[in-house]
Amino acid sequence: MAKVWVDDTCIGCEACVDELPDVFQMGDDGKAHVVNAEAASLEEIKEVAEACPTESIKVEE
Ligand code: SF4
Fold this sequence. Notes:
- By secondary structure, the protein is α+β, with helices and mostly antiparallel strands.
- It has helices at residues 15-19, 42-51, and strands spanning 3-6, 24-26, 32-34, 57-60.
- The protein has a two-stranded antiparallel ribbon. It has a two-stranded antiparallel sheet with strand order 2-3.
- β2 and β3 (32-34) form a beta hairpin.
- The structure holds iron/sulfur cluster.
- Iron/sulfur cluster (SF4) binds at residues 6, 10-16, 32, 52-54, 56-57.
């Protein structure tokens, strides 16, 4: 199973949260966090990761 996480370079733009709200949610720290990596396909997550302006979404297969 792939491991998905957001590193601390996230600038909190909320793009990933808007795209996949079941996977990503904003935390009290103003950064996105992965709440359920299995709520979307790996392909969808990779697309959102590519769209992240700071390349903060990491996927390890
Ligand atoms: S798209 Fe990237 S920078 Fe924007 S909230 Fe998500 S992880 Fe953070």
